[in-house]
Each structure stands twice: as structure tokens, then as C-alpha cells.
């Protein structure tokens, strides 16, 4: 199971089977912590500075003192090297650390810092080729004035509830609305639709994570001459879309062929295909050049 997984735990490289955290770590006890998922290609982490920036912002929101980004960069390259993988997935985690059983974060003196390198395949190649099915879940994203979805925290129960609904419905993914009934995102992906030649996606203030793949896709669309707009989307917009796809570090780009039983006009659509090719090209370009 952990054949390729390599871990860096609080400054030490350790084999996956021996990598562990204390049961008194508040990350474990209360979900008090943050994380990032990063892909690496050709042993190079893709857009690592953006992930470390988002990690640092999540840490600021939690008032969590995390190590300097250089520490993360070194840990990332240490686990990549140790994994012997060319391409893979990294998980960077910072927890509140060990404290008393009570919830008070002030009792935790040092954050726990973990970096894992492993493989991750979210969908099979066959599923990606034909597109996946999704439902709009009864579970809603929390509003930015509650637990702000822009914080990438260890609290993923909302996504897990939504994914359980999708599993129960026998489809591959769930789409969460916000409290106003507008589209937010998938359980671990941002969502895009094409309509009248325009690429549309909800703004982070609608309850979406400020996804790094999302930002990359918006950038690539602009380069390809596809008009883009952050906007409010409802279920109707999804059902009547010309195309729909998810984006995420784990997912990369995944086309959607059906939502709540409604067949999406084209899947995989033309815009999706152009963007998926452009994304693969960009990844190749950025991870084979000599710049750090
Ligand atoms: N939304 C959620 C809830 C996620 O967990 C993720 C995965 N990090 C995304 C969106 C996609 O973000 P990114 O492209 O930065 O991976």
C-alpha cells in the first residue's frame, strides 16, 4: 500500500510505516491544522510557491506559526528524492501540534509539520476519457463568514458528507452549493462550465477554494482566446451548460458528462480538450525547464 510513500515528519525522513503523529496532536484531536496537495512531475513540484503562499495564508487565518518556506521546500525535495518517483503527489500538513486534551490551542507549543510523497490517481483513464457523473448534494459549503472555504484546513467533513452522498447515489462526484443555493465547487475540485463560448466559474467568495489549478486554467483560457468570467452559477446553469469540468491538483482536469441525471451537451467538450492539452504542455514546460 505504501510502496512508494515517503514521509518527512518534524524534520526527519521516515519510512511510511513508521511515520506517525501523537494522539495528543490537535490536528488529530480537533482538525486544528492546514494542508496543501501538490503534484510533482519529473521530480519537480508544480507551482510550489503558490501552494506555499496559500499554506502561509491558511496559517495566518489560524494564527499558526509554521516554519519558513525554505524548510518546506527542502522537505518537499527530500521526500521526492526518497520516493524515487518521477511523477507523484505531495501532501504538506501543518498541525497545531501536541497539547492537552482540551481544545485550547494555546497549550500547543510547536506545530507538527509533515510532508508526504506518494502516488495519487483520482479517476481511471477510461473515466477521464468519457467524463464523470455528478450530483448536486444536499450538503452545502459553509459561508465565508463561518469557516471560510478559502482556508485549506484539516476540517474536510463537509466535503466528506458530500462525497458520501455521491457514493450513495452511485456517481463519481458531488457538487456543493453555498447557503444561497448558488454553485460553490466539487468536494476537492473547482468547477467550470462553458456557455456561449464563455468559460464561467464561481468566485472564491461563492464558497470555492482559490484553486491553483483553477487559476492556471483561467490563465490558459485567456492565452487560448477563450473568454472567462467569474460569476454566480445556479443548478440551472450546470444542467444547461454546453460543457462542464472539474479542476484540482489531484484531479487535474476532469470532464463531467452528467449532473443529476441531466446529460451535459458535449463531453469531453472542445474547450475542455484544448485546456487539458494546454495544461499538460504547461506542466511539461514548467517542470522541465532549469529555473527553480
Ligand atoms: N476545492 C477544494 C475543496 C479542494 O480541496 C481542492 C483541492 N486542493 C480544490 C478545490 C482545488 O484546488 P487546487 O487546484 O489548488 O488543488
Characterization of this structure:
- Strands 7, 8, 9, 10, 11, 12, 13, 14 and 15 form a 9-stranded mixed beta sheet that branches.
- The radius of gyration is 19 Å and the shape is globular.
- The model has no long low-confidence stretch (mean pLDDT 96).
- By secondary structure, the chain is α+β, with helices and mostly antiparallel strands.
- Strand 3 and strand 4 form a beta hairpin.
- The chain has 2 domains: 6-118, Aminotransferase class 4, branched-chain amino acid transferase, N-terminal domain (D-amino Acid Aminotransferase, Chain A, domain 1, 2-Layer Sandwich); 125-284, D-amino Acid Aminotransferase, Chain A, domain 2.
- It has helices at 26-30, 48-62, 69-83, 125-130, 157-169, 212-223, 235-239, 270-288, and strands at 6-9, 12-15, 33-41, 44-45, 88-95, 112-118, 132-140, 173-177, 183-186, 190-195, 198-201, 227-230, 243-248, 252-259, 262-263.
- 4'-deoxy-4'-aminopyridoxal-5'-phosphate binds next to helix 6 and strand 13.
Short description:
The protein has 292 residues and is of the alpha+beta class. 31% of the residues lie in helices and 28% in strands.
| Uncertain runs | none
Q: What is the architecture of the largest domain at the second tier of CATH?
A: Alpha-Beta Barrel
Could you tell me the strand content as a percent range?
A: 25-35%
Which series of helices and strands comes N to C? Answer: EEHEEHHEEHEHEEEEHEHEEEH
General shape = globular
Q: What is the helix content?
A: 25-40%
> What is the average of the pLDDT values?
96
Number of helices: 8
Sheet/helix structural class: alpha+beta
Family: Belongs to the class-IV pyridoxal-phosphate-dependent aminotransferase family.
GO molecular function, one term: L-leucine-2-oxoglutarate transaminase activity
Enzyme class: transferase
Cofactor: pyridoxal 5'-phosphate
Amino acid at each position: 500500500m505504501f510502496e512508494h510513500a515517503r514521509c518527512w515528519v518534524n524534520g526527519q525522513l521516515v519510512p511510511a510505516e513508521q511515520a506517525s503523529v501523537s494522539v495528543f496532536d490537535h490536528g488529530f484531536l480537533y482538525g486544528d491544522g492546514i494542508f496543501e496537495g501538490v503534484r510533482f512531475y519529473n521530480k519537480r513540484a508544480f507551482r510550489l510557491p503558490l501552494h506555499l503562499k496559500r499554506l502561509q495564508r491558511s496559517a495566518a487565518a489560524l494564527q499558526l506559526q509554521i516554519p519558513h518556506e525554505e524548510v518546506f521546500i527542502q522537505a518537499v525535495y527530500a521526500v521526492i528524492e526518497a520516493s524515487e518517483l518521477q511523477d507523484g503527489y505531495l501532501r504538506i500538513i501543518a498541525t497545531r501540534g501536541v497539547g492537552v486534551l482540551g481544545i485550547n490551542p494555546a497549550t500547543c507549543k510547536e506545530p507538527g509539520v509533515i510532508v508526504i510523497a506518494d502516488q495519487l490517481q483520482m479517476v481511471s483513464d477510461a473515466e477521464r476519457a468519457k467524463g464523470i457523473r455528478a450530483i448536486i448534494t444536499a450538503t452545502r459549503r459553509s459561508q465565508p463568514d463561518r469557516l471560510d472555504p478559502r482556508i485549506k484546513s484539516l476540517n474536510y467533513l463537509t466535503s466528506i458528507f458530500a462525497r458520501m452522498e455521491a457514493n450513495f447515489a452511485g456517481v463519481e462526484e458531488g457538487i456543493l452549493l453555498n447557503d444561497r443555493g448558488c454553485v460553490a465547487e466539487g468536494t476537492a475540485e473547482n468547477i467550470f462550465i462553458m456557455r456561449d463560448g464563455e468559460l464561467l466559474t464561481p468566485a472564491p467568495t461563492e464558497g470555492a477554494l482559490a484553486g491553483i489549478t483553477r487559476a492556471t486554467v483561467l490563465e490558459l483560457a485567456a492565452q487560448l482566446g477563450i473568454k472567462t468570467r467569474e460569476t454566480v452559477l445556479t443548478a440551472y446553469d450546470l444542467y444547461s451548460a454546453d460543457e462542464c469540468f472539474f479542476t484540482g491538483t489531484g484531479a487535474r482536469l476532469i470532464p463531467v458528462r452528467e449532473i443529476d441525471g441531466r446529460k451535459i451537451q458535449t463531453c469531453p467538450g472542445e474547450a475542455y480538450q484544448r485546456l487539458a492539452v494546454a495544461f499538460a504542455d504547461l506542466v511539461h514546460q514548467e517542470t522541465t525547464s532549469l529555473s527553480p
